[in-house]
Amino acid sequence: ESLEDPLRLLATFCSEEHLDRLKEIKNPRLWRDIAEVALVARPASIYVNTGSDEDKDYIRKRALENREEYPTVHPMHTVHFDGPKDLARDKGNTRILYPGGRQVPLINTFDRDAGLTEIGKLFRGVMSGKEMFVSFYLYGPRYSKLSLYGVQITDSAYVAHSEEILYRNGYRDFVEKGEELEYMLFIHSAGERDENGWSKNVENRRIFIDLEGNSVYSVNTQYAGNTVGLKKLALRLAVYKGYREVWLAEHMFIVGVKGRGGRISYFTGAYPAGCGKTSTAMIADTVVGDDLAIIHAVNGEARAVNPEVGMFGIIDDVNPRDDPEIYSILVNPSAEVIFSNVLLMEDGNVWWRGKPGEPKKGINYAGEWWPGKKDENGKEILPSHPNARFTVSIRHLSKLDPRIDDPEGVPVSGFIFGGRDPSTLPPVLEAFDWKHGIVTMGASLESERTAAVLGQVGVMELNPYAILDFLPISVGAFTALHFEFEKKLARSPKIFSVNYFLREDGKFLAEKRDKIVWLKWMEQRVHGEAQAIETPVGYIPTYEDLREIFARELGKEFKEDLYEKMFTIRVKGFLEKIERVTKIYSTIPDTPREFFEIMDKQTQ
Ligand code: PEP
Ligand code: NA
Ligand code: MN
């Protein structure tokens, strides 16, 4: 069968109505791409999703019929289970395809030809008997020069359902743009599924990122971090495109902080897992995004859009006291929610750690569950998995920023890099300038391994820009890109580092709610309204300014001896950090020479 007449080929898979939907998009390359997948994967039928209410309902219904999702007491809430071996991103099998399999330190690469051959084999007939969904999405606001486009092909109704919640459906944009439209292509199959509905061949799980083809292939997995194309798979393609065109795709939230006279200043923030990213986003005054940012230089100004309109968040320990905003959305029967890998109890209610009440008999990520159930090693099985998640529209947030859909994006006043550091970094620190911040805060971002025993000084792990897991190029090249990006700016955002985890005698020096104080200080700094003390590692706040902000924001007296403990520059710790980080970068290609100069200067 030939791809020369893709519509004729597609007519053998699609009903007339769905073929017409494809014909509406006058883009022969797209028809060929879809036909090629169908030709190899051999689905029983193709469903072309236009994002209409009928299509959304159908996809949801199919997810329930396929047992990819289960109903709960609330019609708008469903539960998905990934199975015990498919509960997180698979780093080992997620590989960047490079011609010749070029080795890049810290990046998991693989030979492109060998990778595409392997994928071809794994996809052969993989969708037989199944329905293939084709969906079209925007990766950013409609009619924005900052936005990208993506096509998702999948045999999982759960993946399509997730994307309908998390992204803006772009069918009509594809129709309007026709042939000129450039898109990322995501091809996924859950593979054969067992009697529980879990992917059966997880040992053949593969997530291959083809930079040259602007495509990602994912097979034998269901976990959203591995399968939902526009989430972390698109991030790799976007980073690569940005690298070539000099703009930034970042693993950052975008939030607004209110200042004098009610003005809003926007900050983007990158934090490795477990360092306070979500809680910072939720404590800010407005939220544009909780996870991803696309940042361009527009007329000399850094402007950011959120490519998403939903959250795929960790639900473990979300409770009414600490996370009132998220919690209230998750228990709101009229909000559409997909819960994944929580406990679905016999009475049709869901339970996760943090939800009031006791977990009762039901099913979870490992099958049937009852209190006290043990695994084959005699270890108790948790009712809800630590990486259990919720998928929900960001539009339910009461603090949603009104500019979420602004095609111009929001102006970025500051970048924040947040790590978990028990012993060295002060709660907040401002870089001397862009390059100093990029090098000593972004590229040098570390976090204490979260498994570290409390009280013990943990092992520090480098996670530059909190994006290491999603980086398709060397982190040296990514740093050089940030230097290049600055050349396009008339005024660059200020750069800050934050650390909520500084401890003394095993006790945290800052309280959880203090986060708002550091944000407000940064906001004032951006407008030249707060003082700072110059130290060898950057600017720190004055005691007087912080005392004033603590009183105003939290009605709390800020003691001078606490200030001294928090903001004493721990020289030894900084020197050790520079040494650790420089050692790693000295092995990484494309690291700009200036990186080492700035680190040397810092040491001096
Ligand atoms: C994930 O881990 O599955 C994921 C989507 O990324 P993150 O760790 O940023 O939530
Ligand atoms: Na490597
Ligand atoms: Mn993330």
Automatic annotation (TrEMBL):
<comment type="similarity">
    <text>Belongs to the phosphoenolpyruvate carboxykinase [GTP] family.</text>
</comment>
<keyword id="KW-0479">Metal-binding</keyword>
<dbReference type="GO" id="GO:0030145">
    <property type="term" value="F:manganese ion binding"/>
</dbReference>
<dbReference type="GO" id="GO:0006107">
    <property type="term" value="P:oxaloacetate metabolic process"/>
</dbReference>
<keyword id="KW-0456">Lyase</keyword>
<dbReference type="GO" id="GO:0006094">
    <property type="term" value="P:gluconeogenesis"/>
</dbReference>
<keyword id="KW-0963">Cytoplasm</keyword>
<comment type="function">
    <text>Catalyzes the conversion of oxaloacetate (OAA) to phosphoenolpyruvate (PEP), the rate-limiting step in the metabolic pathway that produces glucose from lactate and other precursors derived from the citric acid cycle.</text>
</comment>
<keyword id="KW-0464">Manganese</keyword>
<dbReference type="GO" id="GO:0071333">
    <property type="term" value="P:cellular response to glucose stimulus"/>
</dbReference>
<feature type="binding site">
    <location>
        <position position="420"/>
    </location>
    <ligand>
        <name>GTP</name>
    </ligand>
</feature>
<dbReference type="InterPro" id="IPR008210">
    <property type="entry name" value="PEP_carboxykinase_N"/>
</dbReference>
<feature type="binding site">
    <location>
        <begin position="223"/>
        <end position="225"/>
    </location>
    <ligand>
        <name>substrate</name>
    </ligand>
</feature>
<feature type="binding site">
    <location>
        <position position="291"/>
    </location>
    <ligand>
        <name>Mn(2+)</name>
    </ligand>
</feature>
<keyword id="KW-0342">GTP-binding</keyword>
<feature type="binding site">
    <location>
        <position position="232"/>
    </location>
    <ligand>
        <name>Mn(2+)</name>
    </ligand>
</feature>
<dbReference type="InterPro" id="IPR013035">
    <property type="entry name" value="PEP_carboxykinase_C"/>
</dbReference>
<dbReference type="GO" id="GO:0046327">
    <property type="term" value="P:glycerol biosynthetic process from pyruvate"/>
</dbReference>
<protein>
    <recommendedName>
        <fullName>Phosphoenolpyruvate carboxykinase [GTP]</fullName>
        <ecNumber>4.1.1.32</ecNumber>
    </recommendedName>
</protein>
<feature type="binding site">
    <location>
        <begin position="387"/>
        <end position="389"/>
    </location>
    <ligand>
        <name>substrate</name>
    </ligand>
</feature>
<dbReference type="InterPro" id="IPR035078">
    <property type="entry name" value="PEP_carboxykinase_GTP_N"/>
</dbReference>
<feature type="domain" description="Phosphoenolpyruvate carboxykinase C-terminal P-loop">
    <location>
        <begin position="247"/>
        <end position="604"/>
    </location>
</feature>
<feature type="binding site">
    <location>
        <begin position="274"/>
        <end position="279"/>
    </location>
    <ligand>
        <name>GTP</name>
    </ligand>
</feature>
<feature type="binding site">
    <location>
        <position position="389"/>
    </location>
    <ligand>
        <name>GTP</name>
    </ligand>
</feature>
<dbReference type="Pfam" id="PF17297">
    <property type="entry name" value="PEPCK_N"/>
</dbReference>
<feature type="domain" description="Phosphoenolpyruvate carboxykinase GTP-utilising N-terminal">
    <location>
        <begin position="34"/>
        <end position="242"/>
    </location>
</feature>
<dbReference type="GO" id="GO:0019543">
    <property type="term" value="P:propionate catabolic process"/>
</dbReference>
<keyword id="KW-0312">Gluconeogenesis</keyword>
<dbReference type="GO" id="GO:0033993">
    <property type="term" value="P:response to lipid"/>
</dbReference>
<feature type="active site">
    <location>
        <position position="275"/>
    </location>
</feature>
<feature type="binding site">
    <location>
        <position position="251"/>
    </location>
    <ligand>
        <name>Mn(2+)</name>
    </ligand>
</feature>
<keyword id="KW-0210">Decarboxylase</keyword>
<comment type="pathway">
    <text>Carbohydrate biosynthesis; gluconeogenesis.</text>
</comment>
<feature type="binding site">
    <location>
        <position position="89"/>
    </location>
    <ligand>
        <name>substrate</name>
    </ligand>
</feature>
<dbReference type="InterPro" id="IPR008209">
    <property type="entry name" value="PEP_carboxykinase_GTP"/>
</dbReference>
<dbReference type="GO" id="GO:0042594">
    <property type="term" value="P:response to starvation"/>
</dbReference>
<dbReference type="Pfam" id="PF00821">
    <property type="entry name" value="PEPCK_GTP"/>
</dbReference>
<keyword id="KW-0547">Nucleotide-binding</keyword>
<dbReference type="InterPro" id="IPR035077">
    <property type="entry name" value="PEP_carboxykinase_GTP_C"/>
</dbReference>
<dbReference type="GO" id="GO:0004613">
    <property type="term" value="F:phosphoenolpyruvate carboxykinase (GTP) activity"/>
</dbReference>
<dbReference type="GO" id="GO:0005829">
    <property type="term" value="C:cytosol"/>
</dbReference>
<dbReference type="GO" id="GO:0005525">
    <property type="term" value="F:GTP binding"/>
</dbReference>
